[in-house]
Automatic annotation (TrEMBL):
Location of region: Disordered: 1-55
Lineage: Bacteria, Bacillati, Actinomycetota, Actinomycetes, Mycobacteriales
Start-end of Basic and acidic residues biased regions: 43-55
Keyword check for Membrane: no
UniProt entry keywords in alphabetical sequence: Toxin-antitoxin system
Organism: Rhodococcus erythropolis (strain PR4 / NBRC 100887)
Family: Belongs to the PemK/MazF family.
InterPro entries recorded: PemK-like, Plasmid_toxin/cell-grow_inhib
Superkingdom of origin organism: Bacteria
Name assigned to this protein: Type II toxin-antitoxin system PemK/MazF family toxin
Amino acid sequence: MEKGPALLRQLQSSTSQSSASKPGPSGRPIAARTSPTAHRARKVEYSPDLDGKADPGEIVWTWVAYEEDPTQGKDRPVLVVGRDGNTLLGLMLSSQSKREGERDWLAIGSGPWDGEGRPSWVRLDRVLDVPESGIRREGAVMDHKKFDVVAAKLRADFSWS
């Protein structure tokens, strides 16, 4: 009888460890593939339309795998800058102030995508391929002027049109 509770604890421990190592929420595709921004160059224009599909200018939340360890990651906001079929092209956002002044990060200020109103930065040098089925519809629309600043950097530095 004493082995029962010990066995149960062992099973619970092994179950919690295996689920913690999964790369994202079960059942939802993750944004694991990135490309250099110049390799995904295309026309970029502000066109948010709250029609149930994510469009350029909208910020969506999705699970993003870490570059240094693709088995790990976190749910984070992503600025949609384009589309390739059912795959969204997105730029990762960060609220970490250490991004200030970093070459590949552009300050975009605060917005409704951050519940705490913290300033954010957008990463310009890597485009995430985000499966549309992997996003949460809890997003926001970026201010048109802020989007234009991001688009101008994509055009000037990464050959977007």
